[in-house]
């Protein structure tokens, strides 16, 4: 039974005809599948691996070093209020914040030859301070950095520390922590948990931005909104050098892979264009017959693009699956799902863009000239 073309494209009829045409032109469809599968596979195992490595490097840089802002009262004149860490931590651009008071020398009463610095702690310990023994302190208790614990000769059961001012009561040490990243300097400090209401002023406030892109905005906000008696006396340190280095590394890591991806996509567009020229040449008389029977040009263009999409989607699926499987088995570093979906979407879009002019040219040819018999 001959299909009746009314001239108006119908979705179901177009889809059915596209599937039948893809099956009938096995060579063309197989070529599209092979080309797109090879393209997606090549991009994922080269550019995709580079993107995964770049993301891992940037994530390591962004862990804390490029997001940490330190507010300090170097001269003791700023008067940072003890409620500042809580107010800063409540900001939407802040992951965590804590404050440190004035440094005092402490000793271990059992072994007084050791000495370390202690500071009042306002706020909770961040993830970069990892508890390695004991528990977190309650107000009035202390937790010692690994270096300070060794200097004070604190044993497995820990003990107490005595401030140099003998009139001050001893403080029980209930745990030790290891400091990493930009907070490494705190491993030689004893932190005494203190309620904000029991403290006069702070000397330091550490705040971690949620994202490296918010550091500049947060730095500007903290300069004017930090609770302090004299905010103009505050010293604010932000890792501007580390942020610049991050941008340079990200640009250099991604430049070569992006150029390679553009080259692969360009070659793909040429191959698709040649393939579609072959497909339209093989169906020239079929197009002329449909145009003579009343099929619109838009119906022919839509049918050709749907036929192209079938082979393209199959090729993208096969290539992406094999590429991700290869990366998982060889390197274990997989690109993000956004990158993978972006590669597939870009390949499909590029294929349709390459096929559209050829399909439009085929649809606009004179049906009488096509059907004329010499």
Detailed description of the structure:
With 374 residues, the chain is an alpha+beta fold. It has two domains: 11-60 and 253-371, no CATH class; 68-245, no CATH class. Helix content is 51%, strand content 18%. It has helices at 11-24, 26-62, 84-89, 146-151, 215-225, 240-282, 284-292, 297-330, 337-363, 367-371, and strands spanning 68-72, 94-100, 104-108, 111-122, 129-134, 142-145, 159-163, 171-179, 189-193, 204-209, 235-237. Strands 3-4-9-6-8-7 form a six-stranded mixed beta barrel. Helix 1 (11-24) packs across helix 8 (297-330), helix 2 (26-62) packs antiparallel against helix 9 (337-363) and helix 8 runs antiparallel to helix 9 (337-363). The radius of gyration is 34 Å and the shape is elongated. The two termini are 29 Å apart. Residues 370-374 have low confidence and may be disordered.
The strands making up the biggest β-sheet line up spatially as 3-4-9-6-8-7
Count of helical regions: 10
- Determine Rg (CA atoms, Å): 34 Å
Number of domains: 2
- Helix and strand content put the structural class at alpha+beta
Q: Multimeric state of these chains?
A: single chain
Strand content: 15-25%
Let me know the number of strands: 11
Please state the overall shape, judged from the principal axes of the Cα atoms.
elongated
Give helix % range.
Answer: 40-55%
End-to-end separation: 29 Å
Biggest β-sheet description: 6 strands, mixed, barrel
Subcellular location: Cell membrane
Membrane topology: Multi-pass membrane protein
Family: Belongs to the ABC-4 integral membrane protein family.
Transmembrane segments: 261-279, 299-319, 339-362
């Amino acid at each position: 039974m001959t299909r009746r073309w009314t001239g108006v494209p119908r979705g179901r009829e177009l889809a059915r005809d596209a599937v039948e045409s893809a099956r009938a032109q096995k060579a063309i469809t197989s070529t599209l599948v092979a080309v797109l599968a090879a393209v997606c596979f090549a991009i994922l195992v080269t550019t995709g691996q580079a993107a995964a490595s770049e993301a891992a490097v940037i994530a390591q840089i962004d862990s804390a070093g490029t997001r940490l802002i330190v507010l300090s009262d170097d001269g003791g004149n700023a008067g940072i209020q003890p409620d500042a860490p809580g107010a800063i931590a409540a900001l939407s651009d802040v992951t965590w914040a804590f404050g440190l008071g004035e440094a005092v020398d402490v000793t271990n009463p059992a072994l007084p030859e050791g000495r370390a610095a202690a500071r009042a702690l306002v706020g909770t310990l961040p993830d970069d301070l990892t508890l390695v023994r004991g528990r977190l302190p309650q107000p009035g208790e202390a937790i010692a950095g690994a270096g300070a614990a060794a200097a004070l000769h604190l044993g497995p059961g820990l003990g107490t520390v005595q401030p140099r001012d003998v009139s001050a009561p001893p403080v029980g040490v209930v745990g030790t922590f290891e400091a990493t990243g930009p907070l490494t300097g705190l491993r030689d400090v004893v932190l005494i948990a203190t309620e904000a209401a029991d403290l006069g002023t702070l000397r330091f406030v550490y705040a971690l931005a949620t994202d490296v892109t918010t550091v500049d905005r947060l730095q500007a906000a903290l300069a004017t909104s930090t609770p302090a008696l004299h905010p103009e006396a505050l010293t604010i340190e932000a890792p501007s050098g580390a942020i610049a280095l991050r941008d340079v590394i990200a640009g250099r890591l991604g430049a070569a892979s992006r150029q390679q991806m553009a080259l692969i996509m360009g070659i793909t567009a040429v191959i698709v264009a040649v393939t579609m020229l072959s497909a339209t040449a093989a169906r020239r008389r079929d197009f002329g017959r449909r145009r003579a029977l009343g099929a619109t040009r838009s119906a022919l263009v839509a049918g050709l693009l749907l036929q192209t999409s079938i082979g393209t989607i199959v090729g993208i699926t096969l290539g992406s699956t094999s590429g991700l499987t290869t990366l998982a088995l060889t390197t274990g570093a997989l690109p993000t799902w956004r990158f993978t979906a972006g590669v597939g979407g870009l390949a499909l879009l590029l294929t349709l863009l390459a096929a559209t002019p050829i399909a439009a040219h085929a649809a606009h040819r004179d049906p009488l000239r096509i059907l004329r018999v010499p």
